[in-house]
Amino acid sequence: MKRLLPLFVVLFVLALYVEQARSQPTRSPQIIQLFRPVVAKSAKSTVRVLAGDKEAALGVVISKDGWILTKYSELKGNKLTVKFIDGKSLDAELFGWDVPNDLAMVKVDAADLTPIEWTDSTISKAGHWVASTGAGEDAVAIGVVSVPAREIKGAKFTPPSGGGASGYLGLALDLDFAGVKIQEVFKDTPAQKAGLKADDQILAVNKEAVAGPEEFLAILSKNKPGDEIKLTINRDEKEQDFKVTLGTRPGNKGGKSRADMQNSMGSKLSDRRAGFPVILQHDSVIKPSDCGGPLVNLDGKVLGINISRAGRTETYAIPSEVVRPLLEALKTKKEAPKEPIKKKT
User: Fold this and answer.
1) Which end of the chain is least crowded, N or C, by CB within 10 Å?
2) How much is the pLDDT for 262?
3) For residue 189, which of 251, 97, 255, 111 has the smallest C-alpha distance?
4) pLDDT exceeding 70 applies to what percent of the chain?
C-alpha cells in the first residue's frame, strides 16, 4: 500500500495540473495538501533557523545528537535559534561552513532528534516530481526537476548588489581559492575603472582584513552607490591599494533592478544566485527564507538541500552526493576544506 501512495499522489496531481493555468499550477492549496504524506517524514527533521529575530532559513537534522545543516549566507545576527516542528526552540551555535556550496553546520543541545534520510539525486530525472519540505505538515513548494544534478564549469560568485541599496563593484570571485581572489572583472564597471584585474587577491577593505568571500561581502554590503572604498590587493606578490567608487548594478533604475521586477512576477529571489559548483535545478517557487531545507522525492527521501531561489522558474539545490561528504568537516569550527570538483568520467 505504501508503494501505491506516490502513484496515487501523482495521478491526482496530474489531473489537477491539466485543469489549471500553467502559470503557477503547483501553488494550488489542493495540490500542496496531496503532498503531505510525501513530506511527513522529512518534516520531522526540518527546522526553522532564526538569526536574531529574523527567520533566516530552514535547516535539516543530520544526527540525533543536535547537528543541523542550514544555509550559511543567511546566518546574520548575534544569536541563532532553531525552532522545531513541535514548537520547541533551542539556542544554536555556528560551527563549520562551506562558502562555495553556501552551507553551514549549527549545533543545539539535544539528544533525541530525528535525522533525515538521504538518497542520491541521480535517481531523479528531468520531469520527476519533487517537494520542498518546511517546518510544518505542508510542503513549502512542489515542482518538477528541470535539470538533473550537473557540474557548473568555471563556477564563480558574483557579489550581489543588495537589490539596489548596496554599491556595485563589478567582479566575480574564485571560489576554489582559499581567500578572496578575483576571477573576472566585468567590462565598464567600477572595478575595471579602478584598475583591478583577474587573479588579484583582495586582502582588506578600508584597512579591514578579509579572509573569505563572506567577510568581503559583509563589508561591501555596508556601502552604497557613490561611496569610495579602498581595497588592499596582492598582485604579483606585492601589496597595492586601489580606490574604487562604487556604482549601481546595470539595469537598476530608481533602485529597481531587472531581478526586482522579476520578483514581482513570482517570488523574491535569493541574494546569492550563482557560483555553486554543482546544482540540481527544479521549478518550485520557494521563498529565500525557505532555502536550507530538504528537497525530497515522492518516497520522501532527501535528494539535496535547497540553496537558492535563482529565478522566476528556477530554484537550485545542492545534490545529496555533494552534501554528504562535507558533513564531518562542517562539524569543526572553521571553513570546510576546498576540494577540487570531480569531473564525470
Assistant:
1) C
2) 47
3) 251
4) 77
CA angle centred on 275, ends 148 and 308, rounded to 5°: 65
Crossing angle of the two packed helices 36-43 and 4-19, in degrees rounded to 10: 120
What pLDDT was estimated at residue 73? 87
Q: What is the 3-state secondary structure (H, E, C) of 61-86?
A: ECCCCCEEEEECCCCCCCCEEEECCC
Delineate the domains of the chain, giving CATH numbers in brackets. Answer: 4-151+276-331 (2.40.10.120), 156-245 (2.30.42.10)
**CA separation, residue 226 to residues 165, 184, 195, 196, 271 (Å):** 11, 22, 17, 18, 21
> Are the beta carbons of 190 and 247 closer than 8 angstroms?
yes
pTM (2 decimals)?
A: 0.68
Report in angstroms the alpha-carbon separations of 210 from 207, 312, 327, 345: 9, 33, 25, 37
Position 33 scores a pLDDT of 84
Grid cell of 186 as nine digits = 566585468
Query: Are the C-beta atoms of 47 and 82 separated by less than 8 Å?
Result: yes
User: Which region among 24-33, 170-179, 305-314 has the lowest average model confidence (pLDDT)?
Assistant: 24-33
DSSP 247: B
- According to DSSP, residue 136 is labeled S
Give the confidence band of 251 by pLDDT, cuts at 50, 70, 90. low
- Report, as an integer, the average pLDDT of 60-79: 90
Which ranges constitute the DSSP H helices of the chain? 4-19, 29-34, 36-43, 190-194, 213-220, 258-263, 320-323
Residue positions counted in the chain: 345
